[in-house]
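okkk here we go again. third time trying to get the glutathione bound version out, last two times i messed up the smiles copy paste (missing a bracket lol). double checked this time i swear
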Amino acid sequence: MSTDLTLYESKASPNARRVRIFLAEKGIELSTRLVDLGAKEQFSDAYVAINPRRQVPALVLEDGTTIGEVPAIWRYIEEAYPQTPALLGTTPQQKALVAMWERRAELDGFAAVMEGVRNAVAGLKGRALSGPHAYEQIPDIVERSKLRVANFFADFNDRLKQVPFVAGDAFSVADITTLVTIDFAGGGMKMTIPADCDALQRWYEKVSARPSSKA
Ligand SMILES: N[C@@H](CCC(=O)N[C@@H](CS)C(=O)NCC(=O)O)C(=O)O
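finally!!
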């Protein structure tokens, strides 16, 4: 299905990948504009006029409204295209469980990896947090980030001993954030799923085999 929406994104951005996988699962195609984060294009006047937060992804609607923040972009698309597979749950209970597990994946996993990467990478000096404000790195925090990521692996391994997908019986955005977190940890922190996390490894191989994981 094609739409009149425009997605501003970057292939280097794990947050943008959370949206790309979501769109691939739903079979939705939209026009995309690449923002070159390496060249600091997010700070250009043209992009700041689109998203004053100076971040990707950003979804621009037909009337020019910009939606930032990954969960808000997911929410808009899920509600605007209800005929596509539901990824935020269907019943009140499922919706709450998807929101709960996705938030845990983001806060305990994704944010921990982001913290570990942004406080370590030389090219991000003075940019420890994305967005409109400049923050210096805190190199000493990286050891704690590694501990947080190790605990995320163990906690999500325990969860996936009990259920086939992170939020329960169905694939959802909770799986998308968990998958992107694991790939980001491998690429950005050289931290991979520990050998004793069998359930997490099995789940990872299963979701990585979905065509959407290539997005
Ligand atoms: N909370 C935002 C985070 C977006 C974000 O941090 N995006 C990064 C790319 S993964 C970015 O735009 N970085 C620009 C920069 O570092 O200046 C969301 O959910 O979309």
